[in-house]
Amino acid sequence: MRAAFELGLRCDLDSERPSPGPASIVVFGGTGDLARRKIVPALYNLLREGRLPPESRVLCTGRRKLDPVEFREGLRDAASRYSRTGLEPDAWGRLAARIDYLEGDLDAPGVYDAVAAALASPGHPPDALFYLAVAPEQFGPVARGLAAAGLGTAGRRPGDPGPYRRLIVEKPFGRDRESARALNLELQDSFAERDIFRIDHYLGKETVQNLLYLRFANSVFEPLWNRRYVERVEIDVLEEEGIGTRGGYYDGAGAARDMLQNHLIQLLCLTAMEPPAGLDPESIRDEKVKVLKSIPPYPAGELRRRSLRGQYGPGTDPAGRPLRGYLQEDRVRTGSRTETFAALRLEVDNWRFAGVPFVLRTGKALDRRVSEIRVLFRRPPGGLFQGTCGDRLGANGLTLRIQPDEGLWLTFNAKVPGRASVESEALRFSYRQKAASLPEAYERLLADALAGDSTLFIRSDETEYAWSLVDRLEEAWEAPDAPPPILYPAGSPPPAAP
Known about the structure:
Layout: E1 2-4, E2 24-28, H1 33-48, E3 57-62, H2 68-82, H3 89-96, E4 99-103, H4 109-120, E5 128-132, H5 139-148, E6 165-170, H6 177-188, E7 196-199, H7 206-216, E8 230-238, H8 247-250, H9 255-272, H10 281-293, H11 300-305, E9 307-313, E10 315-316, E11 322-323, E12 341-347, E13 357-363, E14 370-377, E15 397-403, E16 407-415, E17 422-430, H12 441-451, H13 460-478, E18 486-489
Parallel strand pairs: 1-17, 2-3, 2-5, 3-4, 5-6, 6-7, 8-13, 9-18
Antiparallel strand pairs: 8-14, 9-12, 10-11, 12-13, 14-15, 15-16, 16-17
């Protein structure tokens, strides 16, 4: 039995969101992979769908000396390849006419003076969004360079006259709490916290956004969303691919720093948070921080009991072709103990969820690619159906699939027609029934940043609390008496969670 069903997942709340006005979008690192694969295709889709004001301008910076026409042609190829809507020549022409290229070294003050001059020139909107598509160690220097050129906002009060200046930074935000705090202070020396937008692209995914709508716009779910009815919550972000060409970065990070600290903890917060006082950004972000504060400070031994780390070894794909192990990947240290799989069982020690385990799993080189949240409800009491269906009744569950096949399904127990037995069935909702092509995460996040809506961006204290948890986990794993990562074959199912 597979039945479709309708849910009030999306109210017309977008109509209440502020519409962005024309802006100058400055992309530092405009020749890099992020700009070509994500940022420019997202801007193109926004313009094509009427969500980017046509008077907006895009200024990309890079170290290489490039002819502007050649540069725009390269971006055209990237938009054609990576845009979810394909390339429509007229729409691309409208965007390309407003893309400029600025050659400059980010270590030299001249590039920031040139940006300031461009923003002051005719035809460029004075409001500006600075996107730092650069290496993390350049976040602070670029922010300081912008402030030195008169483009920062530190010390500016809310409501002060003048154009807005907003700063977007990509993850990773540090590699531990100490470095994250230092980075936050460095950025805040140049920009007001309200003008700093820390991107976690998972929060821009439609299914993740709908967690709030699902929970708080449907009276059928919210009364069940507590420890009385929920037995367990499982959050998975699993990947089929290995680390690929990222060995230089990944071997110094690992699964916990790369994925657990940001993506999975964000999903945990949205799943466990209390109803916010309102839909304004600070009310929502306040509730997310409360979740992080409610996670107990487990000692090292307890963290080891609650966690599992693994590393993929040689294996085979479904067709039987050999797959390399982590230690055979390029730029991985000999004998590295870096984990490529991490699982952690947590509790949120508050009135709503005390005693309910939240199990987080993430890993690479597995047999599936899936990101989802599963809320498993407690089984019905008594043995009314014992003997008719053999085993105990299956647990009801709600699965929110983030990718692939975005959607959700509710499992329940139903009688088998013509038999005195019970089996699990599902009601399913698919986003593909609503739209053939879902907006990319970067489209929503860029539109929100232009509108000044920081709901889907990470606040400074949130990054530091998340790092505190991961720091304690890393210390527990690195202790002398800690066991090494377990080995699992590439292409195999994920190891069982603790």
